[in-house]
From TrEMBL:
GO MF annotations, alphabetized: DNA binding
Highest taxon of the lineage: Bacteria
Organism: Winogradskyella thalassocola
Gene3D superfamilies, per database record: lambda repressor-like DNA-binding domains
CDD domains found in the cross-reference section: HTH_XRE
HTH cro/C1-type domain boundaries: 4-58
The name this protein goes by in its record: Helix-turn-helix
Length: 67
């Protein structure tokens, strides 16, 4: 599970903008945001760089997930 949706909302950034910056389709980004698909680590790193956040901010901790 990822936290891309939460980070985008906190920063006021639209999925369309992120898709454009990554060179990916809106449907691909929407799949990540809705947790239907998970980005590769490389893509996750690129997202973190574009959003200027630590990659850890985009990942739901397995400790959080178990509670």
């Amino acid at each position: 599970m990822n936290r891309i949706k939460e980070v985008l909302e906190a920063k006021g950034i639209k999925q369309v903008w992120l898709a454009e910056k990554l060179g990916k389709s809106f449907n691909t980004i929407n799949g990540y945001v809705q947790n239907r698909n998970q980005p590769t680590l490389e893509v996750l790193y690129d997202i973190a760089k574009i959003l200027n956040v630590d990659i850890k901010d985009l990942i739901l901790s397995n400790k959080e997930n178990n509670n």
